[in-house]
């Protein structure tokens, strides 16, 4: 493996290495979009890209939450289940109990954040691997879903249908209000990560948790905080998904945690923590969305190629990460 | 004379079974560099940890700036004015230089971090330390020396009365050490008291004003550097062992001449570990490695075993050149190695005594040919008896054994493989005196039986008692090879260490 | 009595027995086993039979976890192997040809081996963290399985193939025999050869193992290959039992159940000591839990809630930090350093000897 080690040491020395995965993703995205435009005439319509946002707004929000967790070097497997639970609880309260929208919204968001908070506490104070704690969280949330009901519940509450049907227009093109919400979440997250102590502490913990502790940073608060943020984002993602689907279903968002993780990794965030950007995550989600769109446009390729391509991209990006990170002693 | 800024009086600290510090006094004056010296287990790091609140204090008191203090952790100590910079840098390599200096206390406006101010102030601070670098670049892209400087900048910017530098120079080259010393002198001139821990003797004489020597958890004394000769310093650190170890009777000082050496290293070396050295070891010969902590003793041992790969020179076994690709190539040549770190590099603590003993032999046989249970019992029983391992229960988890018995288990692991060269790195460190004597007697027996032994120890008396030949190391260079004849004694070895110029 | 309680398998077995006994209250005939038409019947038999694939997957997972790793891709491997075997059988003229079925099985298991080797390569040779390395196949594997089945559910009508998961041999369900055979083989392989000890050594302390001359890479690689193979067998069992292959849903969440079984069985996620018997008990416990929920009339949807509870309790009990915090009143440690978690663990190592 001499050559591997050589390439690695050369890459690890580069000053700009933290941007390298980001450039790679950007190039990949441009390549995929370009090939789409060349092959299909309809692809050049700006609405194609906007549709990618519309179809993946909820994933974007969930992936932003996941970015925080992965930046600390953790992982959150519960996000898909929390999304499903949110759609289920919203639908039940709105349709079954007749609660008003303004009461349901804060309640489900609080529920998601609380779940994340609980998991964060167990991870930090009892030193159990995030992977296994959030796995239990995933079982819990899915289990609660099934306990509420196993069939799909349609939502026709006015606020929800308004959110689902209204369009934010500019010119000939449009996006859904959910996309606006998702973009606001992205901007807030990017600001928090770049310009607040919470954000910087997140990076510090991912870089070296022991140092972070010795430098006097609030490790407990930050670590529990990122899982709370991820729980909140999952719940918000669930709300957006229920706008999109106009239903609550226990089987919504099965496997979404994998999509979210894939988006974050393809977006250039190191799975070992400490390096990455929300903007990268946006690019990652776009890559996933464009793959789907390309496969739909092609018509000959089947949907499962999406998973194979995502797997291949994951492999490529993980290998790239391995090459650019200096070996930890 | 100026008033001391820090005074520690009658400090005692005990761990289960070990008295780490007893009745230690220590004082630090403003504007001085004060070296804390001592061999492994002397109590240097315990003293620092007691001072900075990592450990609770059992006895004694600490007075800082005229007020008695007791800290609950390094953070509190730092707020009171005592900052520590460790050898392993406790910063985040993935953040920028500026951020590493200011994280946790960034200048903010309504919660918004003002990066321009952060970077400007970081630049100013580093320029004061005569370091002109791009503070917006990631810390990890700079050398260890620069990272160390950044850590110092952070420490003195937070609070600047006492600065503890814990082996900061271990991984620096000569130029970088010079840079660090320039900064230390400047801080000293600004009135900061610097506590400097190192095991490089030259550096102590270059920078330190005074020296406190610890040995076996006690203070030997406090000296002005100018008034303490190097040879006296070494003597005080090592001590003339007065332990009542049994005399090994009539140790034959054998000199093997003429025949082909078992192991012949020519200009063997590894960058950053040890400078190229030559060493021969004959059958039945005990070769001692003498030198202070950090002089390259362990590195020599690891190269001969292939635990690290050499990047310079050749190694021949039985006169035939071999390439050590790893421990397995050494084992194929019947070379065995007991690491100085029993717990992290030797034993598998979770496994039983039996499993730990048969592990190396099993590894050479491969997984498909297990050692039959009866053979295992026979071997394990024999060595438990021969080495007097207690408890004599082969199924006890090795974690539950005392240090001395763990060491014997490790020895047994290698002895059953019937090695021709046994490399022992600090086999007697941290074990009680009885076990120590037993291990020494064992080494003598083995060499009488024809086994070659490379014996590494910080205790010169021990090395001299056992070895036929002593190789002396200093500052990562093998500086002398002394036959152990009647003229060789501890004083002469110490003189050699003290006078030995780098070749 | 005290030594009995302290035995590492005591609590899992006790939980299993308690769960089985609680069934008696609802179904008095729960423990009865009878022979009908030359076939064994009974609730206990069903538990073992339906639990057989999980036992398979968990066995492989045990070895991987013992080396200090984890394999998230087993569920996907289950789906891929079922899909490949069913596709191959459906392609041949006579689906009942024994030779044809054997070829299909051999192909599927060969692929499983290869997939395991891929994971092992990424972990042992390239050096990627296990959880991340196996995530790749977890994601891509589902796509591969659907690629083989062309997105359809392939149904086969082959009696030799049906035998593997749904048939009987000597009145005993064949799947149970396979599970028994593989478990016995695993025990033989790990405890009659030195493999078990070497795996525990690598998982317990990788650097010390290297210095003792163990080929830790080779051992790790082997563990992942075995895990792949076991998942492959489970895939055959599952698809054979339902005579069809579903690329999307076969083996879904199996990796999680398998990890759970391993953890319940007393093998630490940190690697080192492992217990095959414990894993089998763990897998049976999970299957019994599912069965119990069905027979007692509790809505089956709550199974996941119980699993969440079990994971949490088992992990908390295994966590040293939890024990230290909850039981700290009982055992006073002399002046434990009050620093944070990371600092505390290092300090313990550095206590001067």
TrEMBL record, chain A:
Entries under Pfam families matching the protein? BPD_transp_2
Q: Does the keyword Cell membrane apply?
A: yes
Spans traversing the lipid bilayer: 20-38, 58-89, 101-125, 131-153, 174-194, 224-246, 258-291, 303-324
Q: How is this protein annotated for GO cellular component?
A: plasma membrane
User: What does the record give under GO molecular function?
Assistant: transmembrane transporter activity
Q: Which UniProt keywords apply?
A: Cell membrane, Membrane, Transmembrane, Transmembrane helix
According to its UniProt record, where is this protein located? Cell membrane
Its membrane topology? Multi-pass membrane protein
InterPro entries cross-referenced by the UniProt entry = ABC_transp_permease
Q: What is this protein called?
A: Sugar ABC transporter permease
UniProtKB/TrEMBL annotation, chain B:
Q: Which Pfam families match?
A: ABC_tran
Membrane topology label: Peripheral membrane protein
Q: Where in the cell is it found?
A: Cell membrane
InterPro entries found in the cross-reference section: AAA+_ATPase, ABC_carbohydrate_import_ATPase, ABC_transporter-like_ATP-bd, ABC_transporter-like_CS, P-loop_NTPase
GO MF, any single term: ATP binding
Q: Which SUPFAM superfamilies match?
A: P-loop containing nucleoside triphosphate hydrolases
Q: Which residues form a coiled coil?
A: none
User: What name has this protein been given in UniProt?
Assistant: Sugar ABC transporter ATP-binding protein
- Organism field: Phytohabitans flavus
Automatic annotation (TrEMBL), chain C:
User: Any idea which GO molecular function terms this record carries?
Assistant: transmembrane transporter activity
**CDD domains in alphabetical order:** TM_PBP1_transp_AraH_like (cd06579)
The stretch of residues making up the signal peptide is none
Pfam families recorded = BPD_transp_2
Q: How does it sit in the membrane?
A: Multi-pass membrane protein
TM regions (residue ranges):
9-27, 72-90, 96-115, 122-148, 168-189, 219-239, 251-269, 276-298, 304-322
| The UniProt record lists the keyword Protease | no
- Superkingdom to which the source organism belongs: Bacteria
Name the lineage.
Bacteria, Bacillati, Actinomycetota, Actinomycetes, Micromonosporales
Location in the cell? Cell membrane
- According to the record, the residues making up region (Disordered) are 331-353
The answer to whether UniProt assigns keyword Cell membrane to this entry is yes
Q: Which UniProt keywords apply?
A: Cell membrane, Membrane, Transmembrane, Transmembrane helix
Gene Ontology, cellular component aspect: plasma membrane
> Can you name this protein?
Sugar ABC transporter permease
